[in-house]
Amino acid sequence: MSIVIFSGTPRKHGRTRQVAKEVAEKLDGTLVDLSEGSLPMFNGEDAQGQNETVQWLRKIVEEAEAFVWVSPEYHNGMSGALKNALDYLGSNHFKGKPTLLLAVSGGGKGGINALNQMRTIGRGLYADVAAQQMIFDPDDFIGDGRLSRESEEKLQEVLSGFFPVQV
């Protein structure tokens, strides 16, 4: 199964990127790291589709069979970088394809609003968004940025439930 994992953070280093990389490794998926590359700000003009990064993004998403969207929560919402990337795509890319949502929060009460916004956008793109989801709080990480053993086990459980053959 071809799985695309979106690291929805514009930060080069951080917990969201770490989670996305770990998911990509576990699922042997393609990582779309939004902290790399040169995806322009979406403005709705067709000419933007000629951008090499936009063309690459559309190609790998079109070929994917499933997705994992990972976003930090910024000011009670999903990352603008992830929203920008999704704006370049359409329902023809996501219709009926399984999509798992993960959020990374900076505090003990964050994450749910980012998940809710991603879920709304997923519905707008006709993705088959999973009911199961996961939020990573700062306590889920150990000193060097890796997931704690408990969080690693929980992530494994979530991924196994969503991608039983893959994990």
From TrEMBL:
Record-linked Gene3D superfamilies: 3.40.50.360
GO cellular component labels: cytosol
Lineage top rank: taxon: Bacteria
Domain NADPH-dependent FMN reductase-like: 1-132
Database matches in InterPro entries: Flavoprotein-like_sf (IPR029039), FMN_Rdtase-like_dom (IPR005025), NAD(P)H-dep_reductase (IPR050712)
MF (Gene Ontology): FMN binding; oxidoreductase activity
Protein family: Belongs to the azoreductase type 2 family.
Protein name per the record: Azobenzene reductase
UniProt source species: Halobacillus dabanensis
